[in-house]
Fold this sequence. Notes:
Oligomer: heterodimer
Mean pLDDT of chain B: 96
Shape of chain A: globular
Structural class of chain B: mainly beta
Number of strands of chain B: 10
Number of helices of chain A: 15
Low-confidence stretches of chain A: none
Number of domains of chain B: 2
Helix content of chain A: 25-40%
Strand order of the largest sheet of chain A: 1-7-4-2-3
Amino acid sequence: MEILNKERRVFVLGGGISKFAAERVDGNMRDWMNEAVLEALEDSGTQIADIEHSTTSYFSDHFDKQLKAGAIFHDNIGMCPKPNVRVEGGGGTGGLAIRNAYAYIKSGLCDSMIVFGGENMGRQVPSDVAQQFIALASDTDWEVQVAGFYIAYYAMMMTAHMDKYGTTEEQFATISVKNHRNALYNPKAHYPMDITVEDVMKSKMLSYPYKLLDNCLLSDGAACIVFATAEWAEKNAKSWGSKPTVELTGTGCGTDFMRMADRPFPDPGIIHFRGKQTGAQQAYKMAGVKNPREDFDCFEVHDAYSGVELVTYEDLGFCKPGEGGKLAEKGVFDLGGDLPTNTSGGLIGFGHPVGATGVGQGVEVLRQLRQEAHPKRQVELNAKRGGMDSHGGTGTFCAINIFERRD
Amino acid sequence: MGLEQINTLMEVFTAEDPMPFEHPEGDPWKDFREVMRIEWKMDFTYKHVLGKYSKFFIELANKKFVTTECPGCGKVWGIPRPLCSDCLTITKWKELPGTGTLIGYSVSHFVPAFMKVEKPYVLSVVKLDGADTLFTHQLRNYGDSTDAIKVGMPVKVAYTDENVDHPLLLMHFEPA
Lengths: 407, 176
């Protein structure tokens, strides 16, 4: 795969987040989408009347009890009769939506696109019903019926990783500590917390080896980004030239079998995310990334569970297979480390309103590259490049996107 | 008359601004903070078809574990597939001995709704002898403690004589 037309480029003009929280009783998904959109329009200095196309990012029809909700979000912000498309890939939905903006703009279908994502995960149903809804995103004939659900699937992947590489529960507990701590400096985060490895280890066992604090959060919330070509931005965006310019320079996507039991055994078996390896290869090639540890200043990774973040380091090439735990313990991925990951707090600290998550990762990377993040979570810019990794299922849909600052 | 006319009404309350740190000038949505919550019940029953892999479930009732072998490339899928997704050849049924090795497991102290299973329960992924890919099911009868469960241990397919709500529950795994 090679991008032949290098003339037409895609820029990230602005972003917005409507607070991630356990339950946003103040409104519903439509209200949060509106808030995220208003912030993104203000941040980008654009008018909705000028934006040509939208992409809707949400995952579940069950949580919101509303099919084709995209039509509502799109009409709420005055986009009718302009075009809209919905993208869906479980937890990877937001990452795929950003990739969609790249494809639509790059192809010339439009010069500008607003991507809005959100989810109503909330506490409208009890947590065991919520887990059942999410389990419906695994194979309902072969996995759900034996009481399969996502915490248990990821726990099985992690026991296999522990057996193969000697990864420890304490090692992945450090991820939870880091991400909750990073969230302390993100006012829109769901679960900021100053905790220790011992706190994680002592939290309630949900599905061995995962404890309560190893898990990400069912959150309400929304996120939005405006993308456009340079020519469109020059004409229509007040932010153009007044704020640092950020470009979407790489996008990759990979997949794997829905049921992890079907994946080629023993490699990747149930241990590694083959879709992330594939997606990262594409995105890195597009953006000219050779050594991810040095070529990125920050990376938002899909920490659905603390151990997933370690495995993701390995599959995105931040380290060799099996080394994720040891490097995390050394603080390589902390703020101030070689490659700070999940500076926003990630899914564990910032929260995981599924359709908003991948889009929110993009807003965080944009804020970092513009040096607009809270001073305590702002990274040092060297490579002037930030990445994001978003996946659905147990690595069924993987999307990797790369933003770069252009001064 | 009034709110009591609404059969499903749960509450009416005033919500707080979730982002006061963004609104030093005051809440822009202050006229929209009165919120109503209602109860909404949905209950369905589906007539679900198990399609081309129904034979797997029919044979489970005969206490046999069958899967599919691809006559094109020879791959044996742990979970049967009518179409081999490696070479797109229509597969053939094949019986397996039902012995295998534990590849990964979890011990759950939480159960999703609608699932009748006693806590804690063990979900496992098993490499069955004679299959190239894996199979996911519960591991039961592992003894008094989950400490005895180890990746790499031999396991086997076991069948139940009890009534079940889904045909896949006619089987489970046990230590061999």
